[in-house]
Amino acid sequence: MQRNLRQQLVNALSNLIPPACPDPDMDDTPRLDACADENEYASRVVEVGMQLALRRRMETRRAEIEEAITRMDTGEYGVCEDCGDDIALARLLANPTARLCVHCQADRESAPYRRCA
Ligand SMILES: [Zn+2]
Fold first, then answer.
1. 74 confidence band (pLDDT: 50, 70, 90)
2. Which of 4, 6, 100, 114 is most deeply buried (CB count within 10 A of its CB)?
3. Based on the structure, what is the number of domains in the chain?
């Protein structure tokens, strides 16, 4: 089963970065003098911002997948990082990069709301 999950992760990794995504290290900041008017400039600013956000999200996802593959190599895959219990197979099949069991994940997600109560 872990071999199938590993293959799923490797496939996901190879499908991550579409070539149209900008490189955040390249300066492709829109310039007002290169645009026909302020509306085009505003559209370009929004477009570049969205592309950078997408790229950041993909880089985060890439890191999550690479970390999951590393955990497979070290034998730590499928073990909850909070409680040490096994993560349910159904959860790993649905989310192969899961680092927490469903109970610990739920605890983390509800924690901010408990502080406000
Ligand atoms: Zn747990």
1. very high
2. 100
3. 2
